[in-house]
Amino acid sequence: MVKQTIQIFARVKPTVRKQQQGIYSIDEDEKLTPSLEIILPRDLADGFVNNKRESYRFKFQRIFDQDAKQETIFENIAKPVAESVLAGYNGTIFAYGQTGSGKTFTITGGAERYSDRGIIPRTLSYIFEQLQK
What we know:
two-stranded parallel ribbon, alpha+beta, 27% helix, Kinesin, elongated, 3-stranded antiparallel β-sheet
């Protein structure tokens, strides 16, 4: 059943090289609303003072770290929406982000391994399984 109208999730994209991980932290203890802090270290360019913010904090219903599997994303995001749709409610999943941030992989999945299926193929399979019951 629908418990909330809009939920916002974040998925941190794995980096190509493990040594090159972005500087971020996930705070799960923040009063039931986890936050993602992005840290942008200041640098001195040509001796000029850089007064830009050094960190940004964003709140989400849930944050999935770099090691989150497609199955975990489906179970926590798409499956509850599919269950609500089967119960007669409208449901939408919307992926938003910068070019190359992993939206297509999350939604449609990878073509090389069955376990890399994304939200769309998993949701279609789930809906047809439920309709056959």
